[in-house]
Design goal:
This protein has 773 residues and is an alpha+beta fold. 26% of the residues lie in helices and 26% in strands. The chain is built from 16 helices and 29 strands. The strands form seven sheets. The protein has a seven-stranded mixed beta sheet with strand order 3-7-1-14-11-12-13. It holds the Pfam family MoCoBD_2. It comes from Streptomyces violaceorubidus. This is Molybdopterin cofactor-binding domain-containing protein.
């Protein structure tokens, strides 16, 4: 063999051994990794708590130690005289509208002035040259209180003295649908209580306010609704909106309205008063005291069914504890009442819903609000129907499930895909997990974990079901609109849209849309601030739908600009040209060029809006087309319960979900798994206790979040991709539906294991002890 031959063979071997790099995924339908994933995992991602400015002052907020008290006097003299203190402000220092609030209700003061209505309500704020000085000065503000008896039971709010000038009743919705005299052959009743869940963001609230030369102020915040926050701040500061700018810093995840305006608004006031940048990083205790929580709810249900298990009538009373202020309670109540019967065909429904003020901590938007609480109740009722008739719980549900074309109790026809039966059948038919072995080496499988007190002989396995439904976007006439701009220059595309990345993956989606539409690999998403047109809050899947739709429309307009000269040159329409893999080709193969060559140094840009079809408010009978679209999820839970001590281990959750279209499979899977895990916390551990209105243990030691050891095996057994024709890309929101369904499924499984009613969430150990123990 010659040397040349040997060399050639060696080179061939080397080439064969060289790994071929896998192509980087791009475009819709691919699992494109998040652009900020590396920075977040390496700890270099800039959060609000990392901000700094020259001449920085530090802020602290004084909060009420009482849930209800009359303010006799506030003396700031000692605080002002402390060395290093630059400003102390109270309600007297609010130059504009002193009230603010979300959901269109301005009922919450920046600082309490006459009355304290909840534990932790802001009373004063301090700016100083050191954070310890600021905290000591805040503590030095002397407040004389006349302590009042708090109203903490929402049922007592109807007869109690008004806690607010607007009264104690925030909203009442009486839903009337069908024949009030209808009756079934069997009747089951239940009383259910849902506890107070905290969003518990991993990163506590933080922000920086910087005064501007024009007399305005810039706020650097982890805001999820920058334009809404700007408008509230401008009104409170007595400034026009153009003089208040909000720059969104890195948001460390959000499952709710994570920003606490009880420190946002004082932050800007302090910057305006001192003329210096002012920073505030909330402690974990302040975070628990300041932001809103999930509505604690009391629910009374009566289901009528025929002998075959088909629901004839549902009667229910739903009472939401809004806490001290209205916030988004009206929206949460609308969802609770509208979905009170669940994803089932109910010809007759009579629901009474109320949201009332109390002296408990304020409630607000938390993922799946309203829908989650009623799901726990109506699924418990379905279990009772099955038990009374001696039927399989899954079969009873299958006989009643909604489908496209059915009518909700609100009178709205379900026009979107509603594959509820398909979802339920998928989880029902999925193989059950193996039973745990009764051996010492597998004791970690017992409820209670290693070294737990349980005994294998006391463990019972249960299987249960939960089917959840949520609405997407705003409801009842909310004007959902978003604006986006797409620019292309030098082969790089830039997206400008005020949709905040809260962990839902919008920035990744925006990149995928532009890659898919324009064939440009490098896509950048500009930082968000209020100089851009508004995009609305980041909740209920609205940025996937509305902001993603705006990005798509703008990208298509740029695509037309790119293709028109080529189409004109070859005498054809732009519809006969396609872009794929960075190349532009014609239908007949005559034209073939790259996107880069077609751009040839040109700068192209376009701005577009997306606005879904309008909705309407529910009328005086709870009727109306209130929702743009709906999404559904079915979950089967398998639990092991020690029936002697009441400990519960969630073994497995099998999930089937209606997703419309999987735009990023890896991201979608992660969102579903996160939602399911959040639901497990609601079912078993998370309960912010507030005896007599006082938050007990406002920290992550006293508030039990589920950890990695608590997370069960999550099996996503089916994703139904039946596109919603009115939604951009046909996709649906995926995060909220599993949060809604999983607590109900876990409770259903515990019922099956113990024979107990399990009518309260989170499930207390005594509720999981089987009868006779």
């Amino acid at each position: 063999m010659s040397n040349d031959t040997a060399t050639a063979e060696a080179e061939g071997t080397a080439e064969a051994a060289t790994p071929v790099p896998e192509p980087i995924p791009h475009g819709l339908g691919e699992s494109l990794p998040p652009a900020d994933a590396r920075a977040k995992t390496e700890g270099t991602f800039p959060y609000a708590a990392d901000l700094w400015a020259e001449g920085l002052l530090w802020a602290a907020v004084l909060r009420s130690p009482h849930p209800h008290a009359r303010i006799v006097s506030i003396d700031t003299t000692h605080a002002r005289e402390m060395p290093g203190v630059r400003a102390v402000i109270t309600h007297e220092d609010v130059p504009g509208t002193p009230l603010h609030g979300r959901g269109g209700r301005a009922d919450r003061p920046v600082f309490a002035s006459d009355v304290v209505r909840h534990h932790g309500e802001p009373l004063a704020a301090v700016a100083a040259d050191h954070p310890d000085t600021a905290r000591m000065a805040a503590a030095a503000v002397i407040v004389e209180y006349e302590v009042l008896d708090p109203v903490t039971d929402p049922e007592h709010a109807f007869e109690a003295e008004p806690l607010h000038p607007d009264g104690n009743l925030i909203r009442h919705i009486p839903l009337r649908h069908g024949d009030p005299d209808a009756a079934g052959e069997i009747v089951v009743e239940g009383l259910y209580r849902i506890g107070r869940q905290d969003p518990a963001p991993i990163g506590a609230e933080a922000g920086l306010a910087v005064p501007r030369p024009d007399g305005g102020v810039e706020l650097y915040l982890a805001s999820t609704d920058p334009h809404g926050d700007r408008d509230i701040a401008a009104a409170c500061y007595g400034l026009p909106p153009e003089q208040v700018k909000i720059v969104v810093t890195g948001v460390p995840g959000a499952t709710a309205d994570r920003e606490d305006q009880g420190f946002q608004l004082p932050l800007g006031l302090l910057a305006l008063k001192t003329g210096c940048p002012v920073k505030l990083t909330a402690t974990r205790e302040e975070s628990f005291l300041g932001h809103t929580h999930r509505h604690p709810t009391l629910l009374r249900y009566r289901h009528h069914a025929d002998a075959e298990g088909r629901i004839v009538k549902v009667e229910a009373q739903i009472l939401l504890d809004a806490g001290a202020y209205a916030d988004t309670s009206s929206d949460a109540l609308a969802a609770a009442v509208a979905f009170a019967c669940g994803p089932y065909v109910v010809p007759n429904a009579f629901i009474e819903g109320w949201a009332v003020r109390t002296n408990n901590p304020p409630s607000g938007h938390v993922r799946g609000e309203g829908a989650m609480q009623v799901c726990a109740a109506y699924e418990a009722q379905m279990d009772k129907v099955a038990k009374k008739l001696g039927l399989d719980p899954a079969e009873v549900r299958l006989r009643n499930v909604l489908a496209t074309g059915d009518v909700l109790p609100t009178g709205q026809t379900v026009t979107c895909p509603a594959p509820v039966a398909e979802l339920l059948q998928a989880v029902r038919d999925f193989p059950l997990p193996a039973l745990p072995k009764d051996t010492p080496e597998d004791e970690w499988l017992l409820p209670g974990g290693p070294e737990g007190a349980g005994e294998p002989g006391a463990v019972r396995r249960g299987v249960g079901y939960g089917i959840g439904m949520v609405h997407m976007l705003g409801a009842e006439g909310a004007d959902e609109v978003s604006t986006a701009t797409v620019k292309v220059q030098d082969g790089v595309a830039t997206v400008l849209c005020a949709a905040v990345e809260t962990g839902q993956g919008f920035t990744t989606l925006a990149r995928q849309i532009v890659q898919d539409t324009l064939g440009v690999d490098e896509v950048q998403v500009a930082p968000v601030d209020t100089d851009q047109p508004p995009a609305g809050p980041g909740c209920r899947g609205r940025h996937t739908w509305v902001s993603g739709g705006a990005v798509e429309r703008a990208a298509k307009m740029v695509r037309t600009q790119l293709l028109q000269p080529l189409a004109h040159q070859f005498g054809m329409s732009t519809e006969l040209l396609q872009i794929a893999d960075g190349k532009i080709t014609s239908y007949d193969g005559v034209l073939s060029t790259t996107v880069g060559e077609a751009l040839d140094g040109k700068e192209l840009w376009a701005t577009a809006q997306c606005r879904p079809h309008p909705t309407e408010p529910l009328d005086e009978a709870g009727q109306g087309d209130a929702f743009v679209g709906m999404a559904f999820c079915a979950i089967r839970a398998v639990v092991d319960v020690d029936i002697e001590i009441g400990s519960v281990r969630v073994v497995e959750l099998a999930v089937a979900q209606d997703v419309g279209r999987a735009l990023n499979p890896a991201q979608l899977t992660a969102r579903i798994e996160a939602g399911v895990t959040q639901g497990v916390g609601i079912a078993l551990t998370e309960n912010l206790r507030t005896p007599r209105g006082l938050i007990r243990h406002p920290d992550l030691t006293g508030y039990a979040l589920p950890t990695a050891l608590d997370a069960p095996d999550i099996r996503i057994v089916k994703l139904v991709e039946e596109r919603d024709v009115v939604a951009p890309f046909g996709a649906k929101a995926v995060s909220a539906a599993p949060v809604v369904a999983s607590p109900a499924a876990v409770a259903s499984a515990v019922r099956a294991a113990t024979g107990r009613p399990v009518n309260r969430l989170p499930i207390r150990p005594q509720a999981a002890v089987a009868t006779g123990h």
